[in-house]
Amino acid sequence: MTQIDGNIKNDDALQDSAASEAADRPDAARRGGGTWLRWLPLVLLFGVGATAWLAFDLGSYLSFDALAENRGWLLDQVERYELRTVLAFVFAYALATAFSIPGGAVLTVLGGFLFGTLFGTFYVVTGATLGAVAVFLAARTALGDSLRKRVGGTLKRMETGFRENALSYLLVLRLIPIFPFWLVNLVPAFLGVSLRTYLIGTILGIVPGTFVYASLGNGVGALFDQGETPDIGIIFSFDILTPILGLAVLALLPVVYKTWKARRAAAR
Fold first, then answer.
1. At a CB cut-off of 8 Å and minimum separation 6, what does 136 contact?
2. Residue 35: which residues within 8 A CB-CB, separation 6 or more?
3. pLDDT in the model for residue 161
4. CB 201 within 8 A of CB 99
5. CA-CA distances (angstroms) from residue 130 to 141, 256, 265?
6. What distances in angstroms separate CA 209 from CA 124, 139, 234, one per listed residue?
7. Who contacts 18 (Cβ-Cβ below 8 Å, separation ≥6)?
8. I need a labelling partner for 115 at 20 to 30 A (CA). Which of 26, 32, 159, 226 fits?
9. Residue-range domain boundaries for the chain
C-alpha cells in the first residue's frame, strides 16, 4: 500500500512539474516577444530610412545640383506659402533625422537659403531635435531594463561615468563634427541619459554647426550664379573649427574640475 501511495505521489509530482514547465513556456515566449517588440521601433526607423534612400534615389534630391535646378520654384513656394513651407521643411528635416537619412548638411544649407541664417538655423534645430528625440526614445525603448541587466557590468560602469557628466559629454559629441549624428542620437539612450539632459545637450550642441551651414546657405544663390557649389567641408576650416573646438573644451571644463576635486579629496 505504501509503495502504491509513493507511486501516486511521484506521478502527481511529475504532472505538477510538467504543468509548471508548460505554464512557464508562454511566459518565456512573451518575454522573448516583448524583447523583439521593444526593438521594433528602432529597427523600423533605420529600415525605412535605408529603404527610402535606395528605393526613391533620395541622394539625387538631397544634392546641390537639385537645389540649383529648383531654387526658383522653392523660393516661390516660400513667398506664396511661407507658413506651409516652414512646417513642411521642419517636418521633412525631422523625418530625415529620425530615419537617419544622409544629407543633413544639404538640408541645413537649404534652410539657410530659403529662410535666411537666423530663421534657417532655428527651423533646422527644431526639426533635427524632434527627429533626434524620436531616435532617442526608440533606442531607450529597445534597450529596456531587462536587457540592460543582461549586458552586465561594463555597460553599467560606462553608464555611471557618462551620466555623472552627461550634459558635458553630450555637448562635446554634438559640437565636434567628426561624430556621426545618428550615432550620437543612439549612444545617450544606451547609457541612461535622461530625456531632459538629452534635449538640452542636443539643442545647444547643434546650434554652432547649424549656424555655419545656414550662413553658407544664405549666400548660396550667389555661388550658383557664378557656377559654383557650396563647400560643406568649410566647417573643418581653421577659422570655423577652432571656435567650435573651443566650445567643446569649455563644455569639458566641469568634468576636468570634478575629476581634479575628487583626486584632491582622495589624496588627503
1. 185, 186, 188, 189, 195, 198
2. 144, 146, 147
3. 73
4. no
5. 17, 31, 42
6. 11, 25, 10
7. none
8. 226
9. 29-267
pLDDT of 27 above 70: no
128: cell is: 533635427
Cα–Cα distance, 174 to 191 (Å, whole number) = 16
- DSSP element (H, E) containing 137: helix 117-151
pLDDT at 56 (0 to 100): 64
Tell me if 254 sits within 8 A of 168, measured CB to CB: yes
Rounded distance, CA 196 to CA 157, Å?
Answer: 22
- The CA distance from 97 to 91, in Å, is 10
Residue 133 C-alpha cell reads as: 528625440
128 in Cβ contact with 97 (< 8 Å):
yes
**Residue pointed to by grid coordinates 504532472:** 15
- Hey, what's the cell of 77? 513656394
Per DSSP (E only), the strands in 149-212 are: none
What is the reported pLDDT for 19? 47
Q: What is the mean pLDDT of residues 59-75?
A: 91
Residue 1 has pLDDT above 80, yes or no: no
Judge contact between 12 and 109, C-beta under 8 A: no
Whether the predicted model's global pTM rises above the 0.90 cut: no
* Alpha carbons 160 and 168: distance in angstroms, whole number: 14
Length of the chain: 268
